[in-house]
Specification:
four-stranded antiparallel beta sheet; 3 helices; globular; about 110 residues; alpha+beta
Length: about 110
Amino acid sequence: MNMYEAVFIMNPVLSAEQVGETVAKVKDLIKSKEGKILNEEDWGLKKMAYPIQHKRSGFYHLLEFEAPGEAISSLEVDMKRDERIMRFLTMRMDKHHVAFAKDRRKKMSNASK
């Protein structure tokens, strides 16, 4: 199993309920492909550097997960088909990326205390 990080941007006109449904759908897709969610971060509504689909902002969400390599292509196809997701990026995490993500999570948890 490889570790992956996926960041996706959802349409800014969605309600909080629709954003939650979209995130749950992506998480269910990962779990249905024998994946395991390791970390999840909701970055909220952010302004984008350039317009996407004539929108200047979007709801950002990050998922870190473990999954077999062949699961990624079907996950990305499903994300492309979902009209609520405007953009996404899925990256395989190497050992340096994993260590950086672990340190970032630790710093964020210490900052929130």
